[in-house]
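User: Some background: our group keeps a shared notebook of sequences we're curious about, and every so often someone picks one and asks for a predicted structure to add to the entry. Today it's my turn. The entry only has the sequence so far, pasted here. Could you supply the structure so I can complete it?
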Amino acid sequence: MIAIENIRHISLDVWMTLIRSNPAYKELRAAGFRKYFRLDEHSPATVETAMREVDVLVNNMNEVTGRNVHTFEIYLLCLHKLGREVKGITEKQLLDCYTALEELFFHYPPVPLYNNLHTLFDGIRATGRTISLLSNTGFIQGPALRRVMQQFGWEQYFSFQLYSDEIGHSKPAPHFFAQLLEKTRYLHGAGLSPAQIWHLGDNPLADVEGATTAGMTASLTTIDKQPLDQLLQLAAFDHAK
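Assistant: Of course. Here's the predicted structure to add to the notebook entry:
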């Protein structure tokens, strides 16, 4: 059980906690990547599969090392997997590709998992608690996710947002959670205990184990078993001490 009356700050994961990918986006992203790098020898489906496999690999690497594999490195891994020589690829090519795929991302934006978060965020802030985001990134970088939060009207509720590509560390790395604690203490004072931060996310290792190792309170949330909106109701209607 969460001692909700002791919680002063709520930290949220992003992907599959607040949002999920637009069903059309990943297929179109693969098509765009294939076109940009002229991977005509591979079918669109082959490119999409390679990008998905690299995405899973990089997520696992980040969780093991606690570091952050940059988006451009992910692109190079995808190209290598598809048999392309990466030595001649330039940083400008990688940047131009990212810019094009990011534009596509905003044409097919992610989908909110819940439709009542405005009300819950309002309720949480009214109790005196603060809210922030703590997310690993991959193909989509922090600045793009900040823009998504702004477009959904959620940005106003977050005291700060922490993304792994901007910090250089990924969950469950202690350094990433230390950044969360430092910024929360700036809001609530140096006497804030880590246990007064409640982190919620969908990954047992990155979110739950990472937060509990840092001394924080943590909950696993999935849309089918422990929906985020039901968990947040605890904090929206109970005032912090």
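Suggested note for the entry: The chain has two domains: 4-20+111-236, 25-107. The first strand starts at residue 9 and ends at 12.
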